[in-house]
Design goal:
Layout (H helix, E strand, L loop, with lengths): L1 H20 L16 H27 L1 H9 L8 H24 L3 H11 L2
């Protein structure tokens, strides 16, 4: 349980400080996200502990789910099911979803998309 909480806490701490110090972090649209008062920071930390405990309690159930294994493979898990590979896979899945949504919103055809990816060297 301590490992889950520490992993989640360190991940969220790093994310928090990236958002706080780098004002050009605009990928998620959170460039104005800043927490400066101590009570809010304590609440965020408490929330991280709560979420970490929740995932610790349901971890054995999640590992048995075939979708979790596929997401871990997407995260380069190579058969290993862990939080690290799950988060990497989830990140890739969210990026792919945002790209597909952009393509649909802008009405980009498959031919035009092929031209764009060829131009980008993908």
């Amino acid at each position: 349980m301590i490992n889950v909480i520490c992993s989640l806490f360190s991940y969220l701490t790093i994310l928090f400080f990236k958002l706080w110090f780098f004002r050009s972090f605009q990928v998620l649209g959170w460039e104005e996200f800043q927490v400066r008062d101590w009570e809010s920071i304590k609440n965020i930390i408490a929330l991280c502990f709560f979420i970490g405990n929740y995932f610790y309690e349901i971890e054995s159930t999640l590992i048995e789910h075939p979708t979790i294994e596929i997401i871990c493979q997407l995260g380069d898990g190579k058969g290993i099911v862990s939080r690290f590979y799950f988060l990497k896979g989830l990140k890739k899945l969210l990026i792919a979803n945002s790209v597909f949504q952009f393509k649909e919103d802008k009405g980009i055809s498959d031919d035009k998309w092929a031209e764009i990816t060829d131009f980008a060297g993908i």
